[in-house]
Design goal:
Blueprint lengths: L12 H17 L3 H15 L4 H11 L6 H18 L5 H13 L6 H19 L6 H9 L10 H23 L1 H4 L8 H10 L6 H12 L7 H4 L2 H10 L6 H17 L1 H4 L3 H12 L4 H14 L5 H5 L3 H11 L4 H6 L8 E2 L7 E2 L16 H16 L4 H12 L4 H13 L5 H4 L3 H11 L5 H13 L1 H5 L3 H16 L4 H18 L7 H14 L2 H18 L6 H17 L7 H5 L12 H20 L4 H5 L3 H8 L5 H17 L1 H4 L3 H10 L6 H18 L6 H11 L6 H16 L8 H9 L6 H18 L1 H8 L4 H11 L2
Antiparallel strand pairs: 1-2
Helix pairs in contact: 1-2, 1-3, 1-4, 3-4, 3-5, 4-6, 6-8, 7-8, 8-11, 10-11, 11-14, 14-17, 16-17, 17-21, 19-21, 22-23, 23-26, 25-26, 26-29, 28-29, 29-31, 30-32, 34-37, 37-40, 39-40, 40-42, 41-42, 41-43, 42-44, 43-46, 44-45
Amino acid sequence: MLVLLRVGTFLPAWELELALLDSVKLARRERSIVCAFLGQFAKLEQLNQYPDFNNYLIFVLTKLKSEDEPTRSLSGLILKNNVKAHFHNFPNEVTDFIKSECLNNIGDSSPLIRATVGILITTIASKGELQNWPELLPKLCSLLDSEDYNTCENVEQVYGLLFKQGAFGALQKICEDSAEILDSDVLDRPLNIMIPKFLQFFKHSSPKIRSHAVACVNQFIISRTQALMMHIDAFIENLFALATDEEPEVRKNVCRALVMLLEVRMDRLLPHMISIVEYMLLRTQDQDENVALEACEFWLTLAEQPICKDVLCRHLTKLIPVLVNGMKYSEIDIILLKGEKNSNVISGLGGAGVILCFWGVWEVISNDICSIRKCSAAALDVLANVFRDELLPHILPLLKELLFHPEWVVKESGILVLGAIAEGCMQGMIPYLPELIPHLIQCLSDKKALVRSITCWTLSRYAHWVVSQPPDTYLKPLMTELLQRILDSNKRVQEAACSAFATLEEEACTELVPYLAYILDTLVFAFSKYQHKNLLILYDAIGTLADSVGHHLNKPEYIQMLMPPLIHKWNMLKDEDKDLFPLLELHNAQPDQYEAPDKDFMIVALDLLSGLAEGLGGNIEQLVARSNILTLMYQCMQDKMPEVRQSSFALLGDLTKACFQHVKPCIADFMPILGTNLNPEFISVCNNATWAIGEISIQMGKMFFIFIFACSVCTSLRNIRDNEEKDSAFRGICTMITVNPNGVFQDFIFFCDAVASWISPKDDLRDMFCKILHGFKNQVGDENWRRFSDQFPLPLKERLAAYYGV
């Protein structure tokens, strides 16, 4: 029996052990840690009062071999949570004992226990313990240096390999969680030793070791860690050697590395680009879905590079069919979907088909967010924006076959393809739309719910063209059919139809006025039909309708139709009910996701105040003057929850526009907070902070010293893909530079780099970029500009020359 350390208050050993095993076994019976914690949280918190409790947890994990592995692993995971919550309160003796046991058991014969020990090690390391655990990295690296066996012919050799795998697993987790500190002087830059060591194991005989080695190095690509950049050629050479590795996990990590290198070291990949494209084409069709998914990301990343067209033009004949084929629901996708209410039999799965007796509606599980289908569709979307109508000769022959195919799975994928190319290939598609739109409207009545739902989305992508035609030709039939789908018996279709109709409302605006009575009849009836989730989308559709038709909705008969069900829903809810939020947001068109109940009301209150500031303009001045709103907003700007900060910065921007005289005295307090929130990890927070800085700069004029933020803002935004939030943030940057061009002078290279990150900026934003770039060039003169631009990496120089003529 383990001799336990006695520190402070303690329970008798037998009682503590029984309590612990009771908790762990109950956790296993509960089937998940979450459920176990819900049932046993009070008991675990009580046990945490006794320092010995954590000794017992590590004992069960590493020594109690009489218990099965899931029970031992759960004990380790409970300890991991204790480390996260209470580690700095652990007595030194307990901390040292846990660390010692982890290192002694990193090579456990069980993969589950090895993984749990690795998780525990990296959790301790993430609590700042890399500095206080100096023996950790040397110990793990020494285990990598243990004698290497190509074959394991005896027990000692087997355990040697297990320790090596366990050490590598722990190192991989440390590299994932502590990459920044590993490349710092705090630890004397251990990566200078670790990176070359990892590279040695790319050719190891064990697939698991090879996979760990690549995964460890991958953590340092995006950050351009110097220790890796010094060995970049050796790294790439070793990656190529692993390209056809038999182990899927190795191939997945190779694909992931090439995708990241495409972003940061294109210069090293360029000489091999033809071979890399051919390789990624092959891997996108890999039998292992995880490998194929990583490879598919390559096309998304390549589309953002200036060389995309030149590199891919000769490969489109092969690439487009691969992406289109990936957009079909796979057999496993279909099995993972809940049964369709209209039919329990799903054909096309081979043999006699599969009978699914689930109830409810079609719904993709959360993993579909990262599925081959969605990644292929996203890749086709961005490539359509790069190649525009040049893509159509490769797409149209496939579409003709897919859209009219008798198998619903194939037809559904064709409709998805048609939607994916809508934005990029719109001009070239116009001649075909008079035939395709009626066909799609007909597909809205398809017997398969998945066909109906994807058709709603695809039609919404062509809504702009639909409303540009005579109303009776396409708008009225589409509106009529979408309203019927809003009342569909299938929840997935309800959701898709509501979203599509909201898009149609935005495009059609007052074109919908003649049909308001019919539209409101349908939307009001949906109140009685919809359940919680889809009610939120219904509220959004009603709010969008109000924005789109404006005062035309302000008629007694329409108000009488719409208000009673809204008031009824309002009266049914308690003051603390979160379902109040979407009803409040009918007054404010900026829905958010919420987490903690106490913060939810803060967010909604901030958003409602933003709406009032925007709507009342200068008339809100007296209300602000008589309140402590700026003090409260200052506190909200420092909240831990990103959504609270996001809404706070939006309110700051609106108040700056509406009543700057009240904001101005607080600028010195606000600006440091704004500067620390220019982090693209939280894109909406970063966007709103940038926008608020822009509004303040407009008000303050030349008193505002932009150079403090130029580097941070541009560095944060350069890695964000094109979207509306990025557009808004860059307009703020351009506004700041226009107000105070000299303020950005020292950091102008960061602005150039950020501008070059755009693939397709809107025309007016592109004009703003051109004016700023050419203005800077003219100000410094051609010779100084040449010397300045010689500092640019070659891809940046080429992109600015091609897109902006500088």
